[in-house]
């Protein structure tokens, strides 16, 4: 059952098993895996049906990687498949368009060893140009979604009331307990995963790490940001309409699961009107993504939207 506690296979323990889930990631996968090579980590690639040569790159240039090929059941399901065949006492979950800096993995493991209460430790993320990529985040709520979708947070960038959704102006310079961390690069303790289970596979793409971190914290574990290790992550320059709709769907699914139908329905209305406004203000691909998501949100109530595959 998705999200249920599962028995991860008993195997001889390595320190770290790196799991990279790919779907048409040929432009980036070599850099991602190269940053793992030489760290001593077990390397596992789970491919969700790539058609762009990703699998061939992995086979040819990283023959030491354990390759799992499967149909695309989503990002969380891919990570679950990788963790099931992993041997490490930690799982490094790394996006295929992300790569570690030198010494980052060793620093993450050392920090996690010093903090046995931490289920998840995340490094500081940087954009390819070296600028900070904000990764400390807050759970969605109708109010927090309103601060984002109606641009309210831009009125007072330092205000906690208006910026809790994006870490309330945290400078990413010190260790911090987070509600959740952006999932491009996470070190996760096997013992913690054994206690609550893997990703909820009902989250196909987006918000699976939000749900996972929430469940860890509900079970008494901690989610820690650690700036003593860094990774780079590529964020798409354009806003893909299908991916943006998955962001919206993820917010609804998280709130429906953890806060109930009434709260999720309030959030649906907030996002619907916010995206209608944005669809009027923005042109091009960005505006189209907002208008497509607004049409979807307006096509039914929360329960029906979450049950549909469209």
Features:
10-stranded mixed beta sheet; two-stranded antiparallel sheet; 12 strands; 310 residues; disordered N terminus
Itemize the secondary structure elements and their pairings.
Blueprint: E1 14-22, H1 29-36, E2 42-47, H2 54-61, E3 66-69, H3 75-84, E4 88-94, E5 98-100, H4 104-114, E6 118-126, E7 132-133, E8 136-137, H5 142-149, H6 160-163, E9 176-177, E10 180-181, E11 185-189, H7 190-196, H8 208-218, E12 222-233, H9 241-258, H10 261-281, H11 284-297, H12 302-307
Parallel strand pairs: 1-2, 1-4, 2-3, 6-12
Antiparallel strand pairs: 4-11, 5-12, 6-7, 6-11, 8-10, 9-12
Helix pairs in contact: 5-10, 9-10, 9-11, 10-11
Q: Estimate the mean pLDDT confidence.
A: 92
Please give the share of residues in helix: 40-55%
Give helix and strand order, one letter per element, not per position. Answer: EHEHEHEEHEEEHHEEEHHEHHHH
Instruction: Assess the beta-strand content as a share of residues.
Output: 15-25%
* Overall spatial form: globular
Describe this structure in words.
- The strands form two sheets. Strands 1, 2, 3, 4, 5, 6, 7, 9, 11 and 12 form a ten-stranded mixed beta sheet that branches. Strands 8-10 form a two-stranded antiparallel ribbon.
- It has helices spanning 29-36, 54-61, 75-84, 104-114, 142-149, 160-163, 190-196, 208-218, 241-258, 261-281, 284-297, 302-307, and strands at residues 14-22, 42-47, 66-69, 88-94, 98-100, 118-126, 132-133, 136-137, 176-177, 180-181, 185-189, 222-233.
- The protein is an alpha/beta fold and 310 residues long.
- The longest helix is centred in the C-terminal third of the chain and has 21 residues, at 261-281.
């Amino acid at each position: 059952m998705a999200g249920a506690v599962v028995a991860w296979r008993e195997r001889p323990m390595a320190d770290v098993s790196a799991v990279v889930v790919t779907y048409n990631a040929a432009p980036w996968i070599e850099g991602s895996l190269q940053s793992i090579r030489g760290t001593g980590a077990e390397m596992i690639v789970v491919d969700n049906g790539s058609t762009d040569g990703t699998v061939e790159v992995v086979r040819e240039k990283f023959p030491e990687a354990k390759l799992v090929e499967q149909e695309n059941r989503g990002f969380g399901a891919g990570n679950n498949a990788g963790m099931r065949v992993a041997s490490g006492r930690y799982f490094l979950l790394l996006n295929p368009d992300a790569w570690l800096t030198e010494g980052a993995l060793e620093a993450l493991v050392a920090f996690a060893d010093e903090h046995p209460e931490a289920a998840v430790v995340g490094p500081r993320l940087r954009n390819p140009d070296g600028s900070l990529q904000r990764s400390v985040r807050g759970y969605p709520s109708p109010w927090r979604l309103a601060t984002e979708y109606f641009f309210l947070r831009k009125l007072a960038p330092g205000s906690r009331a208006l910026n809790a959704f994006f870490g309330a102006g945290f400078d990413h310079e010190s260790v911090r307990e987070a509600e959740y961390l952006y999932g491009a690069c996470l070190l996760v303790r096997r013992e913690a995963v054994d206690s609550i289970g893997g990703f909820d596979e009902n989250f196909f793409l987006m918000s699976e790490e939000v749900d996972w971190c929430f469940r860890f914290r509900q079970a008494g574990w901690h989610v820690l940001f650690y700036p003593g290790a860094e990774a780079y992550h590529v964020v798409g320059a354009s806003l893909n309409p299908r991916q943006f709709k998955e962001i919206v769907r993820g917010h609804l699914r998280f709130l429906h699961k953890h806060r109930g139908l009434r709260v999720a329905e309030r959030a649906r209305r907030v996002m619907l009107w916010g995206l209608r406004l944005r669809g009027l203000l923005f042109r091009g691909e960005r505006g189209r993504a907002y208008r497509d998501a607004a049409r979807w949100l307006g096509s039914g109530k929360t329960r029906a939207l979450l049950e549909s595959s469209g």
